[in-house]
């Protein structure tokens, strides 16, 4: 039975029994920012189990994509060395949301596993576990299956009790294990095992767990109590890889049709035979990691240095290292990702739709790591004598050579070394602190004012029962009261009751403006978040006295910020449309004079592509589309297609910014009412921000207009210098280039014939050798070469030493062919003379050049040139 048949049979079995087939959710959980990856079938139903969401069905069946390679569930280090561990796998599962419970779940499982029309595994090969307190499940198993009670084993919480978290739904679980010893003839005389023997065989992998049934019937409380749930539910999980190994009668998941074609392709690419024993671990790692990489990239994860992207980069680099161990010195994983797309694309079409993206990113990451892997491995070789690799060295391997800490641990472990992980984490923490501080400084530079600064002074409350209200979405001015304030030296912080001032968040900088009271004015230089409210900050020389105030945001500045903020949403959408859906925002700065936008992408964006993106943004600006905002439930926003940033934590109610047909994002910033208010958008820079992250900068509105005026002014200046009109400047430049080519050709002809000489000097004789020592104002090395060629073609037994004194001060030496045949080398002469000034150089035997170390000493070198040449000729 093929894996595809097993997958489809499982789904069809439960569909025939009233279950709704629900597609696999993405590997990045859309409604759970706290979870790194989808690691079980129940993840997409978590809110249903918690009673926070209702579905139009009470029974479901899925085949869920899962990754366990980080956080609590991390199988990365075991991959390749065991028969069952994987980073990516498929979890088959059936679910009941307050519908059926233990009896039906056990009946379904037993029929599917043993039924002749289904999997058809012999009952005498099967063993069951239950929680040691779950007498109900034990009775059901014996009555439904006919198995003797001795074949049902009661285990503790560690093995047979499941809970969602510290609180919430939980309950006992029951596992089905199959005897895979030999050909599975376990029922002959060994149908009943002692508990100790059962535990030993299961830990050894000879009794293989294929299905886990979780009976969620309690609600875990903080005080440790577990009252019954009002609607008990069922959550099950069966690993497709394990079931396939059992059904295909192979000892390892890697021998199934899920992995064998990938390993076969790896063998073709690498050119070495596959060993199914320990020696084949690298091939198994490559096959497993190719699946994880393909699916993570297809679901929008991008290689990065933090979070999910870092896990993906670790997987990629671990694969590269294993390809390296197999002797491969060029990208390997990219070929296997291609195979994965073809192998699983019929079930998961996103692999085919995004194939070019998967392969281009994989290849780029492999090539990037190859650029540094040599240096990292060389450094590890140098550290081989140490018992422990220090935290500082481990961090250097990570920071300089791109070695993830677990890769360093893996290599060190193979050599009997340990790694100071705590020291590494400390060094990494310091680097992150420095990076964060640098980022904050860069943000400060955008507006000239620091925010979120710890200040002294005591708060004085003016209105004890007053609560602050944010009104900045709708107004930039307010007549209001001071709730509290504090003053330290000449700086005052004021909390306003109706606050129109935006405090820096989501990349948007704080507002500035003025607050006017009775007889005083405070210039607002920034806004701070203090104890959950916003405080305007400014310098105030006198003793502050709170009075009713008029708060006024600097409206022109705010409008420019809004233009730039809405533009970032349009840019994000345009980047995803032109470059691909893998593009994800990695950070931004929205200031009044410019915007900066960082995004995940594997390489530079060339000028023509950047022009297409700029054109796309401007097209939406000129369409004057409405920019609407609304508050809605987080789940509903995600279902409506709103983009969320999974590193952020969102509440139940979120604010959605919608540009119809273009962009829908969760965002708390301020925006223009229509895109036409942006007026104009122009890119100013495109560069790299980090590995796998690009950065663009741009201007809008008045900033874009000022940029165009500036460029027009520079164009007028250039036209004036070229003595032509701006519209004729290209033709004039072409004419000058052509004239310059003709002049260069004429100069070359003169130099080749020895005409038009630009050097002065003298001729001396050393025996029968002529020594020409001269000075020249030539700086172009090609022209100097032409002069020396002309010298060599017109002289016999002669040496030319030419000194240049321009920006590239140095010594140039030519030696005629007859002297070269006698062993006289221009490089020896040039180096010896230049050494007087502290310089050095090199070249061919008949022509060589050397730079002057100290140009001021070139005169001393010239004075000693004859003696140096004479000494070398006598050798």
Could you walk me through the main structural features you see in this protein, from its secondary elements to its overall organization?
This protein is an alpha+beta fold and 875 residues long. α10 (307-325) crosses α13 and α24 (826-834) runs antiparallel to α25. The protein is globular, with a radius of gyration of 37 Å. The termini are far apart. β22 and β23 (533-539) form a beta hairpin.
Compact description:
With 875 residues, the chain is α+β, with helices and mostly antiparallel strands.
Which descriptors would you attach to this protein?
875 residues, 24% strand, 6-stranded mixed sheet, 37 strands, 9-stranded mixed sheet
Give the fraction of residues assigned to helices.
25-40%
> How many strands in all?
37
The multimeric state of the shown protein is single chain
Radius of gyration: 37 Å
Number of helices: 25
What's the average pLDDT?
88
Task: Report the β-strand fraction as a percent range.
Answer: 15-25%
Shape: globular
Helix and strand content put the structural class at alpha+beta
Termini separation comes to 85 Å
Poorly predicted residue ranges: 184-189, 438-452
Largest sheet, if any? Answer: 9 strands, mixed
């Amino acid at each position: 039975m093929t894996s595809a048949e097993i997958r489809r049979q499982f789904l069809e079995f439960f569909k025939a029994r009233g279950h709704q087939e629900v597609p696999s959710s993405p590997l990045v959980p859309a409604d759970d920012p706290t979870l790194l990856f989808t690691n079980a079938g129940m993840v997409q139903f978590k809110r249903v189990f918690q009673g926070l969401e209702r579905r139009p069905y009470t029974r479901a069946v899925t085949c869920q994509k899962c990754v366990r390679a980080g956080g609590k569930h991390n199988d990365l280090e075991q991959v390749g060395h065991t028969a069952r561990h994987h980073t990516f796998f498929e979890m088959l599962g059936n679910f009941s949301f307050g519908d059926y419970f233990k009896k039906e779940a056990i009946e379904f499982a037993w029929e599917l596993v043993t039924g002749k029309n289904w999997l058809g595994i012999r009952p005498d090969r099967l063993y069951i576990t239950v929680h040691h307190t779950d007498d109900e499940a034990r009775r059901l198993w014996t009555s439904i299956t006919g198995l003797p009670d001795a074949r049902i084993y009661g285990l503790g919480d560690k093995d047979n009790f499941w809970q969602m978290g510290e609180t919430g739904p939980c309950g006992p679980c029951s596992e089905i294990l199959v005897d895979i010893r030999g050909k599975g003839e376990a029922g002959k005389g060994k149908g009943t095992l002692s508990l100790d023997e059962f535990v030993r065989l299961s830990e050894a992998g000879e009794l293989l767990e294929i299905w886990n049934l979780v009976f969620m019937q309690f609600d875990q409380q903080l005080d440790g109590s577990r009252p019954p749930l009002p609607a008990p539910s069922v959550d099950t999980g069966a690993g497709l890889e394990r079931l396939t190994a059992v059904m295909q009668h192979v000892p390892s998941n890697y021998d199934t049709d899920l992995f064998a074609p990938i390993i076969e392709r790896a063998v073709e690419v690498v050119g070495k035979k596959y060993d199914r024993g320990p020696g084949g671990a690298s091939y198994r790692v490559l096959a497993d990691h190719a699946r994880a990489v393909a699916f993570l990239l297809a679901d929008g994860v991008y290689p990065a240095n933090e979070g999910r992207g870092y896990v993906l980069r670790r997987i990629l680099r671990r694969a590269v290292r294993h390809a390296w161990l197999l002797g491969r010195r060029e990208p390997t994983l990219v070929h296997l990702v291609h195979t994965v797309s073809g192998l699983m694309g019929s079930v998961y079409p996103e692999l085919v739709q995004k194939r070019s993206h998967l392969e281009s990113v994989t290849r780029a990451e492999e090539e990037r790591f190859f650029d540094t892997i040599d240096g990292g491995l060389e450094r590890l070789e140098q550290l081989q004598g140490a018992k422990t690799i220090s935290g500082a060295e481990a961090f250097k391997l990570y920071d300089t050579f791109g070695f993830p800490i677990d890769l360093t641990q893996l290599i060190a472990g193979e050599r009997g070394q340990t790694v100071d992980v705590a020291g590494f984490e400390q060094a990494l923490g310091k680097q992150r602190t420095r990076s964060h501080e640098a980022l904050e400084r860069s943000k400060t530079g955008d507006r000239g004012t620091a925010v979120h600064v710890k200040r002294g002074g005591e708060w004085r409350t003016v209105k004890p029962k007053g609560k602050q209200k944010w009104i900045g979405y709708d107004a930039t001015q307010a007549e209001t009261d001071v709730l509290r304030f504090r003053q330290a030296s000449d700086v005052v912080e004021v909390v306003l009751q109706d606050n129109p001032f935006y405090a820096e968040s989501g990349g948007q900088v704080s507002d500035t403006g003025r607050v006017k009271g009775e007889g005083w004015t405070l210039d607002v230089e920034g806004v701070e978040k203090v104890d959950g409210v916003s405080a305007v900050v400014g310098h105030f020389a006198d003793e502050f006295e709170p009075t009713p105030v008029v708060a006024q945001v600097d409206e022109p500045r705010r409008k420019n910020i809004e233009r730039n903020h809405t533009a970032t949403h349009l840019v994000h959408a345009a980047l995803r449309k032109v470059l691909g859906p893998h593009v994800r925002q990695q950070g931004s700065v929205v200031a009044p004079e410019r915007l900066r936008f960082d995004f995940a992408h594997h390489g530079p964006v060339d000028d023509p592509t950047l022009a297409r993106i700029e054109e796309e943004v401007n097209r939406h600006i000129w369409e004057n589309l409405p920019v609407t905002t609304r508050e809605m439930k987080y789940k509903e926003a995600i279902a409506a297609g709103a983009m969320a940033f999974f590193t952020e934590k969102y509440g139940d109610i979120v604010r959605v910014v919608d540009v119809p047909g273009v962009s829908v994002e969760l965002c708390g910033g301020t925006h223009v009412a229509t895109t036409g208010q942006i007026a104009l958008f122009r890119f100013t820079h495109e560069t790299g921000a980090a590995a796998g992250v690009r950065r663009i900068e741009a201007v809008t509105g008045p900033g874009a207009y000022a940029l165009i005026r500036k460029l027009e002014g520079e164009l007028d200046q250039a036209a004036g210098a070229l003595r032509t009109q701006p519209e004729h400047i290209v033709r004039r430049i072409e004419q000058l280039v052509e004239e310059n080519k003709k002049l260069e050709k004429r100069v070359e002809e003169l130099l080749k014939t020895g005409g038009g000489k630009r050097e002065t000097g003298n001729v001396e004789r050393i025996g029968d050798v002529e020594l020409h020592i001269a000075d020249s104002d030539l700086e172009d090395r090609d022209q100097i070469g032409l002069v020396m060629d002309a010298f060599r073609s017109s002289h016999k037994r002669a040496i030319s030493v030419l000194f240049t004194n321009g920006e590239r001060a140095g010594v140039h030496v030519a030696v005629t062919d007859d002297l070269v045949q006698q062993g006289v080398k221009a490089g020896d002469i040039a180096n010896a003379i230049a050494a007087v000034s502290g310089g050095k150089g090199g070249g061919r035997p008949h022509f060589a050049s050397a730079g002057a170390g100290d140009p001021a000493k070139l005169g001393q070198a010239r004075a000693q040139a004859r003696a140096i040449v004479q000494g070398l000729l006598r050798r």
